[in-house]
């Protein structure tokens, strides 16, 4: 394998060199000198269509040059390439040209004849392992009629040079004993066979026909440019003016790329070249997809060459209901799966309604249904487009609330009573009150803003003047029934508050609504209550029989639990011998509680002690079986124990929040089950992806599944990588080409299991049961079978074969999970 001592950028035009058999070479001009729509306009002669992309790319990278003539620069694509010329191109390709010192005095054996210009290049190639010195000396000695340097480079010789230039010698060694798939494979010299097989497996070289490689044929300039261009997928060199990034904007005259937290804009004109990585044919500028990966070569901020690296767009689509927009700081809140989510956007965000009409972000209406497209590559994701439902025409009126009933709302405007009809499902908004209704409005106190639809019906009532406050865990001092005056102590301030009950005050005891007459008997000294009030009027009062918050600490000496409530207040609650419910813990104790746990404390009848302590926790299971009629599901826990879950009245969804029935819980399905104590709150199915890693970064993973579909997996909640017996927690442990199993654990962390090939000896295939059997490696071997599916890929010499092509005694390597084969490679 070459030991490259330098990976510095190539300097275009440093040396006068051209891949030719004779003639005058010219230095590669700076990329800005090229103004071309095709590779043919870089040179005055015609480049074959199949080579135009590759010639243009390598010329702009400074790897190849043309011949200087009186009419202009010629490429001469069909000229043969000599061995010494091919070496110079390989060094430029590998980023090693700066190791060459043209003034070095280099001596070789008399039989090894090389042009003086090329001698230091050949020495650097020997030094870095691109050439085997002994082999090439022997080649020269065996053919003294032609100087080694001017000998035409053959297809097999160039293939070896290229494979070594991209550090794939180990692969060539592994394939050196594998028979070639070409019909003329026996003509490939033994010392080159492994390199040809490696290059074919990496999709770097193809035959001159479907069945013929023609190993001894000389390589021409167009072919060699194509070979090295394709090799760039396997060996990345940072060429001057070249950048990889994600397209975030494109117009007829510019393209903007995002890379490592920075966006850069390049100009475009009719000379800019556009290609895709999976084709040799030019594409239109409009074929570049926004938010996809590209490679761009530029000079002076002008894009000369743009190559799409696929069609995957690094975005995700979210459906949500708008809450509010902050245009000053460029963000908005929207409800996603009943959770408020903050979305940031930039100045270029696209906002349209469902008919395609362009809108401003400020045009979006509260509670509008949105389709949000958000990028997945920025550290702080940005919304790139918003589509909203068509907004009905509406206006607003304001006044002071007076009364409501019989489908009408009455309000005062400058002392005059006015009325409006109420639409169905009127939205009422009162600051500080959850899910308020019209009955929560206060007569001649609340100033209201009414939103009207096209029929002048009220669709929204917003109280604009009410200042609502909350006292959590207030202690009752006394209650006067005569004037409905309640005095309480606020534990946060230790201050007494005198507040009034009204005819609209709502009462709640242990989750059930009660009347004022029922509440009177509970309003006694030391009773704990939660009060919502505005001014001096109590809006709602709840008798506290449970508290939910984050456990701060446990004092086992004084038997006190310190809990930070959801309101932010910290309270201390005593306990004696509470019932402990901790999901996943069979026999919990007080010592099982951990600071940071979310807990619900159910209080005793005196409200002074925690009678039950319920820990909130999500557990992950694998479904064993499900009974749709009894709603009973048998699952397997992390320690392989089985237990039954009753899912009567328990909501079941997929990862996207779509509702499912119990029949979706098939054997093997992974589910996340959130508990409060012993009570199941919901069930969410977790998708298990199997496939090949296409790309990986610190924040996301792109997986091509076995059926060919591609999907992006976010790593925002962390990643755990399991490879054999090793476990790491960094995405750098994953490589493109790895065969993986991917899913999310109960904490939303991404679990990636990398398949380690299991080398075995093939025995037979049981077609009725789709099971492949191998001989046991040891007497204790339990893994000697694998299930074959329609997605299983079986390869031999990198070509797909049928399972019927396997023979008893064949050596195979199986990649898969849980005895399900994803890929099988025959040696």
UniProtKB/TrEMBL annotation:
Range of residues in the leader sequence: 1-27
InterPro entries membership: SLH_dom (IPR001119)
Domain SLH: 38-104, 179-242
Protein keywords: Signal
Pfam families cross-referenced by the UniProt entry: SLH
Name of the protein in its database record: SLH domain-containing protein
Organism: Paenibacillus glycanilyticus
